[in-house]
Design goal:
Elements (H helix, E strand, L loop, with lengths): L2 H14 L5 H17 L15 H4 L15 H4 L10 E6 L2 E2 L12 E4 H6 L4 H7 L8 H9 L4 E5 L9 E7 L5 E4 L2 E6 L4 E10 L4 E12 L4 E8 L5 E11 L4 E8 L4 E10 L5 E10 L4 E10 L5 E10 L4 E10 L7 E10 L5 E4 L2 E4 L5 E9 L3 H9 L4 H17 L5 H15 L8
Parallel strand pairs: 1-5, 4-7, 5-8, 6-9, 7-9, 8-10, 9-11, 10-12, 11-13, 12-14, 13-15, 14-16, 15-17, 16-18, 17-19, 17-20, 18-21
Antiparallel strand pairs: 1-2, 3-4
Helix pairs in contact: 2-7, 8-9
Length: 437
């Protein structure tokens, strides 16, 4: 049985196994019908021209888990940013792990989406925000149809969350192949501030396909700092769909660090619905082997006097493939827009590939917009200069790559995250450099 048919035939059993209200049932049913019509994306679609899912869709995935596998903290501690005190929302094989988590309802809600679905006090938030900005495309619709668990974060107005929130999804490999579909809803009200770190991690060599959807609502003068750490094993594939709606005078930044996995597709969409908004999208990709990472970004400037800044760096070795498809849309009313988009790439192998497509669609006439893309190799003269001064070639290469990535790292606001990413970069480059950027 093909995966699509297996998913469709599993839906009735899935709904019978969860407690949902009639409104959610209608949302799920429409989403399933949409997925049934669209199916999985193929390279015939322009947005998926350079990324094929065929190889990973051949697996016989378990569609939804029926039990939680037990894991010990000592076995997974290294995947947390454990140097800092933080709230934690942890899922194991799609199921909430109370043992590994640390949630709160003290002045804010850092808890489970399933709880928000089932309790009346959260109903107004769910009705106002759930599935309101997520696209009705194939994979987002698939997630909506099967969404039952994920993180629910609600920060009331004027609240600055005193410590970061970590959202971590583990797959234990108890199934020969598993398909996970976490759904996160994050609502940050007026003048509130939150920092969030997200990670997906496979703990086994068995195949896993994660189809994740996150909706983020940033209200007036609110600030959201979001960090995605992607450093999974070669049998893990991830499609990450993130949708962000910003109101006036808000700031939202998303940093995406892609260092591992089989196929990784990041769909990041910003919608600016007010004036004096700042949207920040930054990323570092370092991959090798036959790994594939695809960054697909959209910033929709709807109102005047707003800014967006995109800066993506990629380092590709062996037979790896990178894709960057960044689109900026400036509507007719969005005068005085300042939009910046840059994608720089280094190929350290003759067999590595990068497909870059920066795009601007501008319908206003009083704007400042720029985009650019570079693809090249390390500077041989700089390498020679460093080697002449006693720096071994391997370390010299690493230093140049660190400098290349520094424009992204310097904007990371959590020192412990910056330190962890620096170490991950050093590990990817196979060096040990005794300093931090």
């Amino acid at each position: 049985m093909e995966l699509k048919e297996k998913i469709l035939s599993s839906y009735v059993a899935f709904e019978n196994g969860i407690n949902i209200n009639s409104d959610l049932h209608e949302i799920r049913t429409k989403a399933l019908q949409n997925f049934e019509k669209l199916g999985f994306p193929t390279k015939k679609l322009e947005a998926w021209k350079y990324t094929s899912l065929n190889s990973i869709l051949k697996e016989d995935y378990s569609i939804f888990p029926d039990r939680e596998a037990a894991i010990e903290l000592a076995d997974v501690k290294k995947y947390f940013i454990h140097e800092i005190d933080s709230y934690k929302i942890v899922f194991v094989d799609g199921k909430y792990s109370s043992f590994l988590s640390s949630t709160t309802h003290d002045g804010k809600d850092v808890c489970l989406l399933s709880a928000a679905f089932s309790k009346d006090k959260y109903k107004p938030v769910i009705e106002k925000y759930f599935n309101k900005i997520a696209k009705q495309d194939n994979l987002t619709s698939l997630n909506t149809a099967f969404a039952s668990e994920g993180a629910f974060i609600h920060i009331p107005k004027n609240v600055e969350v005193e410590k970061p929130i970590q959202i971590i999804n583990f797959n234990t490999g108890k199934e020969n192949a598993a398909m996970l579909q976490p759904r996160n809803l994050i609502v940050v009200e007026k003048n509130a501030h939150v920092q969030i770190i997200e990670r997906h991690q496979n703990l086994n060599s068995n195949a896993v396909l994660t189809n994740s959807v996150t909706e983020i609502f940033t209200d007036t003068h609110a600030t959201v700092d979001y960090y995605k750490i992607q450093n999974d094993n070669e049998n893990a594939s991830l499609v990450d769909n993130t949708y962000i709606e910003q109101q006036k005078e808000s700031t939202c930044s998303v940093h995406t660090f892609s260092f591992g996995g089989n196929i990784t597709r990041n769909n990041l969409n910003f919608y600016q619905k007010g004036e004096h908004i700042n949207s920040i999208l930054k990323g570092i990709t370092i991959i090798e082997g036959k790994q594939h990472v695809d960054h697909h970004t959209l910033v929709n400037h709807i109102e005047p006097n707003c800014e967006s800044h995109q800066d993506y760096k990629g380092i590709y070795g062996d037979r790896s493939t990178g894709v960057f498809n960044g689109k900026v849309i400036v509507e007719k009313e969005a005068q005085k827009t300042n939009a910046y988009q840059q994608n720089n790439n280094i190929l350290i192998s003759d067999k590595a590939t990068i497909n870059a497509k920066p795009q601007l669609e501008i319908f206003a006439d009083d704007v400042k917009c720029s985009h650019g893309c570079t693809i090249g190799q390390l500077d041989d003269q700089a390498l020679f200069y460093m080697q002449q001064r006693g720096i071994p070639k391997k370390e010299a290469n690493a230093l140049l790559m660190y400098a290349f990535a520094n424009t992204v790292l310097e904007s990371v606001k959590i020192p412990e995250v910056k330190k962890r990413i620096t170490q991950l970069i050093a590990n990817k480059l196979g060096v040990n450099i005794g300093f931090e950027l």
